[in-house]
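Q: Fold this one first, please.
A: Sequence and structure below.
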Amino acid sequence: MATMVAAIRSAAGASYKLLEAGLTRRVTLLASVPMMFEYQAVMTRPEHLATSGLTVDEEKQLRAPATALASRRGPQGGGK
C-alpha cells in the first residue's frame, strides 16, 4: 500500500520508479481485488490527492493500468 501512495506523492522516489517499472512490464505487479479496493480508498484521501496534485479521476486513470497489468493473487496465492 505504501508504495502506491508514495508513488503518487512524489515522482522522485523509489516507489515511483517501482510503479513505473510495473507499468512498463519490467517487473510483475501482484494484486488482489481487496487490495485494489484498499488502494482506491487510501489514494483518494484528500491529503494524498492534495500532495500529489491529482484529481480523483486522474488517480483512477493512474490506478486502472496498474490494475489491468497486475497478476491477480487470491488468498491461497493462486494465479489468474
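Q: Good. Now the second chain.
A: Here it is, same layout.
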Amino acid sequence: MRDLGRQDDLTHGLLPSIEHIVKIIIVMILTSQDRHRGEQVTSMKKMAEARKNGIVGRRNLPMMLLQARETLLQHFRPIFHRFGLTEQQWRILRVVSDHDRLEQHEISSLCQISGPSLSNILSRLEEVGYVTRERSREDQRKVFVALAGKGHALVREVAPSVDACYRDLERVVGVDLMASLIVVLDRLLSLPLDSIERKPGRSGRASG
C-alpha cells in the first residue's frame, strides 16, 4: 500500500482537534490520580483552588493540552503507519465514513483541518482511490466528498485496531468515568465560547 503520510506531515500545517486534546488531558490527569492515590487529596485542593481563583495566571493550559494530545497519539500512530496513513488522513476517512457524503467545508470543521491543507490531502486520497469528490450542479462553490469502495474497505480494516486502543484506555480509566467525561465534553463543546470577547481596559501577561 502506498505510503500517503510522509509528504502530508512535512508540507501541511494542520489545526489540532480541540475535542481530542481536551479529552486527552483530562484522561491523563485522572489516570495519574488512579496510579498515585496518595496525590488525590492534593489534586482535590488544586481543583478547589481553581474553582476559587480560575485558571488565569496558572500554567500554560494550551501547551499542556497539546503535550497531552501528543502523548496519546503515540499509541495510535503505529496503527496509522502500518496502513500508510497519517492521523489527519485517518481522521478524514473516519468522519466521512459516518455520512453518505459531506461538503468539503464540513469536513474542515469536523476534522479541524484548515481549508488549503484539507484540499491537498483530499487530492491525495482521491488519487489513490479512497475518496471521490463531486462539485454541486446547483452551486459550483460546493464540493461534496464521499468514500469510494476502496476507502470503505480501508476503514473497515483499520477501525478495529483503533477501537481496541480506545478500549484499552477505557479499561485503565474506567467505563463510568469515560462516560462522564464524554458528557462533560459534549456540554463544553456546545457552549458558545466563540462569542466570548475580551473586555477592554485589562492588562497583564497572557497566560495562554
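Q: Anything worth noting on the second one?
A: The domain at 5-189 is CATH 1.10.10.10 (Arc Repressor Mutant, subunit A).
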